[in-house]
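Hi W.,

Here's what went into the run:
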Amino acid sequence: MKNNSKNNMIINLGPEKPLNPTGLSISVELEGEKIVKCTPQLGLTHRGLEKAAQDKDFSQYLPLVEKIDYLSAFFYAQAYLSALEGLSGIELPKKAQYIRVLTMELNRISSHLLWFGAFLMTLGTTTPVRLSYKLRDEILNIFEKLTGGRMSHNYYVFGGVKHDIPVEFLAEISTCLSNINKELKTLENMAAKNPIFTSRTMDIGVLNTQNAFEYSITGVNLRASGYNLDFRKEKPYLVYNELEFPTPTAFEGDVYSRYLLRIEEIKISINLVNQCIDWLLANEREKYSLNIDQNDIKPSAGRAVTCTESARGLVMCCLSTDGNNKAKRLKWRTPSFYTVQALGRLVPGHTLEDLNVVISSLDIVISEADR
Amino acid sequence: MIKSFLITVIIAIAAVYAIICLEKHIISVFSLNPASKNGLKQLLLEPFCDIIKIFSKHEYVQKRRNFLFLAAPIIVFCPVLTAFCLIPFNQAFKLTNFDTSLIIFFALVSISVIGRFLAGFSSENNLSLVGAARVVSKLIASLISIGISILAVSYTAGSLNIDTIIQAQSSTKGLFGWYFLPLFIGAVVFFISALILLNTGKAGFISAENSSLGAYAAEYSGIKLALLEISDYMLLFLFSAIFASVFFGGYLNPFGAYVLPENLHPLEQTFWFLVKIFIIVFCAFLVRTSLPKAKSDKLLELSYKVLLPLSLINLNIAVLILYLAGN
Amino acid sequence: MQIESTKLFKTLEGLKKGGFISLISFVAEDLSQNPTEEDKFLLTYTLYNPVTKAFEVIETVVNSEIQSISSLYKSANYDEREIYDLFGIKFKNHPNLKRLFLEKDFEGHPLRNNYNTAETKTGRAL
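Here's what came out:
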């Protein structure tokens, strides 16, 4: 046991914890029952993906892009490809843009459903995990039928998408989503009306907007603190400026409001997917890809920065090319990197049992923080 | 004596086996995850697979081990195994017949729970120390309330012998002569306090999560960990048995009169006893699957501010009943 | 906006007072072409003003050292550690300039152009 001169106890909570962000190693310093200092340690899943972009072609790098965050594969692929398409000066056909928006919003729903199960698991219940995994499984089956892979798809290509979505499949997506909509009320009430749950999550892990901006936190964590910043509306990409969707905010910034906000986001995403399905049903015969040879991607020299709003926050792809078929420098700005940094500020003041709840409410995925 | 020991061990193993199978089935049904396709055969064979798996696990040992670290699982396991001989399954077959068997039972349970504290303390790991401290705080909080409600029951029955308490509940009124009706508050307090006391493992498996629920066993693996887990199941069975005996009439028939002929009475009594234990275990698992885990300080608040005064009220009711019955 | 590295801290301080309180991203790039050339890195800061909802991009070219801005923007703490880890740029007055991702005794800075993964001692070829 290590004690410093003030008789504080140091506990190392190692990287292998079931169903919490695996790979996050934390060292907390306890004074009595309260945590005084919290030091996360990153780097356990560092794979050097930014260096890999300098050794591989653009099309060879595309499968690696989806592995940065295994839960938001479509978002990262979109960020990467839109940087390439911006530098090459091509514009995607409308149908490809709608298909991309549809798959990205489905990805957002499945990521939030997984977060829901993992979050309630840290509180001690085991039942909601099974329910949310059952719903998520239906979405993953849709992905498998459409692209061939459940979590890593290889569906987006430079210039559009690989294959078309047949019209009968759109009806299947629609029924799956209405099923999820029906179960959402159960999911929400499973925890929201329960007094044990509310006493464990209200006024815990409060993040106010000043701290959120200092630590450059975006996404749901920022919107739950009171500031409405959604990069789908701030810097619209693809066809988001043609779709109608609200961006709700909460004001307390605690764990409970983040929970409610993510459930709201699932509902908004379902609405967005239904709007895309309506457009796709009306415009069946459009082109879905520009049919560019994938081995021959050579964007012009320059720099491009794209912003995408993924399930966890803002994803930026900063690409710098010099006319060859390899990138000169590719930088990923990932949201979890900054959320991990904010842990050192959010966690002190809580007890050891709240630590788990606070960390899992922030929706950290370590593989995107480490890259 | 060897015969009694063997019988105790067999009863204990059968009880643990039944509870493991029940737990898997009940939790899978309540978690909306139906049991696997192979059904009953797989369910009944699973505990054997678990045992073989535990024997084959590589045990990670620390560099410096002290005697307490090795002795703690034994201190946890043996008293609980001994407590199985205190339960009367029917009128004819009793392994022991002490006059103060209720107090002996709680003494053995306390030794076992202190053993968990030793396990966490001797692990030389800060996280285990925190978990061990929580175990002790829960033990003290719940045992006070349990003790006072047991006191009320023993006043009403006139003895601390479990068998005598069961016999004192037998009457022609059957179900309505049991102690859970006049001492309803005591029954509720006992049940909730027992759940708090048993809340040391996580979903039946002591996994060392940093929710510090099973953290006292963070350094244990292999057979030592299996002993700690099995004693958790045994405690659940024992508490249900005591709860059924003390408040719900033990092996007594709820109809008052026996249905079967005279020489089959023991069988019928054992049947009713097992049915009651099954219902109580079912309720315990129901609470475990449907509610999230409350924080430690809330549980302690509940214990000291709500359950303790209620058990004292219960004691007053018991004394009042005795006074009125005496007059 | 291109700024010299010596004036960077004052400029960012002024911008922070002017309302740009959030450092959204901080990117470094190795500008040197051949291994014999001197180190030359391009740092890009993207700032955000929540009140006017405006973005501001500041660029600067450094050789090896620059003043740290972690006292102004808290999120720059990990960013600068990552850049030190992968590029070798030192930040003066940083509270805790240690490697973030790689091991403590790792030799070299991988994202530089003259770091060839297949040829270094500890290199792990991709």
